[in-house]
């Protein structure tokens, strides 16, 4: 955490519960520490993935810790659509996203919260460009404590937690997806590096079927979905043990997949 420029505000990375889009919600106080909720409650400026879900989150916070700024007066700015759809790291030759103009309120002395729809912003979610801009402007950056689905799934998988990689989303095209699965399996078996990936929930079952059809029988495959919820499902088995008895993850609940040896 950097010291920050005198008189400027802080950029807080505010984690959200992992129940976005799920049929049930976890009690907020069960998944986020009081200090995180108290910090969120006192902020009045936000950068977020989606303003509607940000307001819903703040309403939940307000029920436990009254907001210092009424919800209707919160200054909530959405990140550009291209940032959370295509990333902001200049992939495919595109220019990197310059988020410095979004941090004018912090330069004027206001603390700002960065919020994604679930989990930690900037980790498997948009926001890295905002953090990068904050550092460039000399602002203090403060990550708050909360759930990170990738690490929860890794810890519960029994796979190598000393050497791992998060590889994002796999291709949608069936042939390209199968090729990518083989590539990741090759790396995992050759180097003992756990490979972690995610999928849009409505494609969970299709990815699961592709994994069981493509992976070798002795590869270990872990599935975690509904993390932090009462009906969380976390299992880790060899592929040969999954085949014939596996129930695919539903197409509504966010899931994390991991493979290795």
UniProtKB/TrEMBL annotation:
A biological process (GO) of this protein is: methylation
| InterPro entries attached to this UniProt entry | 4pyrrol_Mease, 4pyrrol_Methylase_sf, 4pyrrole_Mease_sub1, 4pyrrole_Mease_sub2, rRNA_ssu_MeTfrase_I
Q: Which UniProt keywords apply?
A: Cytoplasm, Methyltransferase, rRNA processing, S-adenosyl-L-methionine, Transferase
Coiled-coil parts of chain: none
UniProt keyword rRNA processing present: yes
- Is Transit peptide one of the keywords? no
Recorded GO MF terms: methyltransferase activity
Listed PANTHER family: RIBOSOMAL RNA SMALL SUBUNIT METHYLTRANSFERASE I, SAM-DEPENDENT METHYLTRANSFERASE
* Protein name, entry field: Ribosomal RNA small subunit methyltransferase I
- Which species expresses this protein natively? Verminephrobacter aporrectodeae subsp. tuberculatae
